[in-house]
Amino acid sequence: MTKPSAIAESEGDTNRTDRRAAWQAGSLDATTRRLLARDSDAFLHQSVSTPCLNAIVRAEGIWIEDAAGRRYMDFHGNNVHHVGYGHPRLKRAVAEQMDALPFAPRRYACEPAVALAEKLGAITPGNLGKVLFTTGGSDAVEVAVKVARAATGRHKTLSFWDAFHGAGTGSAAMSGEMLFRSGPAGPMVAGALHVAPFGGYRCPYGTDGAEASGRACARMIDYVLARDPDVAALVAEPTRAVPYIPPPGFWAEVRRICDRHGVLLIFDEIPTGLGKTGRMFSCEHDGVVPDILVIGKGLGGGILPIAAVIADPRLDVGGDWAFGHYTHEKNPVTTRAALETIRIIEEEDLVANAARVGVLALDRLAAMKERCPAIGDIRGRGCLIGIELVRDRDTREPDGDLAEAVLYRALDAGLSFKTTMGNVLTLTPPLTVTPAEMATALDIVETAIGGAEGARRT
Ligand SMILES: Cc1ncc(COP(=O)(O)O)c(C=O)c1O
């Protein structure tokens, strides 16, 4: 099935571009090529993964190392490496737990699972406190929606275009990315409604500025909810992954709108939870407590897969049904890993570090923007940073070609990151990132932008 060209254009670092092929031709050794060929033969091909870019043999702290021995600071990490790769304390805890109790069939309680559920209740805002675990974020989002359906007696969801909530059929339906929900992915789950998101620099409602965009988006949410009484929940990332920071008051207004219409608010903090944005949960920046919070990714410490649904106890009304009946629902090893990860984040003061380094990065980026006309906008919170590249500051025409060139130049200089929406360099280092590492990364980005622009002129 052929893809509409908009899909290819919406992702800068898809795995089939000429620039990627050129980078590989100049960068990969024979051993790596052989492994990539076996990988390509063994796995079903899909966009943004197989065939792969390169092969790695080591991941430690902020670093990944490829098969040829080159090291890259990983400013992507799929947002799992909050505590850095292979934290020694975490590895010890996982090993101890494997010796003590490697698995618990679902009908048995075990100490690490209960302790993790209690800990999540203690660190999440407001009254959130009743928990279900899954192995992945996509499943957790779907569980959250089933809980909301049980509690409201309604079945539809409202979410944002351009959002990502997971690759499962239900989560992809709530997502707003063509790559995951169109063509062979369809038909999707019925009742997944969408509105355009807020976005100060590129507002789909045609407004100018973050506040106006937020107001327009909130008005549209109100408009839709007023016309559809079957919506159980609004599902959204409180800080959009592009990234887009919500304007002040936006979520408070949306919270009021949801309450007015009897709609629950589900925040998907799978990448942003546990400190990524410089607060333990990104919704704390906005002082808004959802009815259900979903986290994942970094929860397993970058070693094990685990996600969590943390709900207001008043939603615990579906006890006769099975919402999250997953084999690893109360796995002692994954839950112990999560518990230890949270303790490391707390005891090493990593949330404050993410906030501090994020401020330094935005200061530095503001200066870089003065020097570099290709930077149209900079946005960020903590360790979630976006640098939007444009062909022309006045027209704001996206420069995906430049973003892709910068990505491969940065790899050559030892920095790995991804692009979103084609033209946004998206930097998501671990919470352990030091000011010096951030400065080095931004030096690499600035040099790469200058180099790529120079190459284009010649
Ligand atoms: C906001 C958001 N929600 C959900 C998911 C899905 O998580 P998983 O890949 O663990 O299913 C992701 C993954 O990238 C995400 O970024």
Automatic annotation (TrEMBL):
InterPro entries: Aminotrans_3, PyrdxlP-dep_Trfase, PyrdxlP-dep_Trfase_major, PyrdxlP-dep_Trfase_small. Coiled coil: none annotated. Gene3D superfamilies: Aspartate Aminotransferase, domain 1 (3.90.1150.10), Type I PLP-dependent aspartate aminotransferase-like (Major domain) (3.40.640.10). CDD domains: OAT_like. Residues 1-20 are annotated as: Disordered. Keywords: Aminotransferase, Pyridoxal phosphate, Transferase. The keyword Acyltransferase does not apply. It comes from the Bacteria. The keyword Transferase applies. GO terms for molecular function: transaminase activity. NCBIfam families: PRK06082.1. Belongs to the class-III pyridoxal-phosphate-dependent aminotransferase family. This is Aspartate aminotransferase family protein.
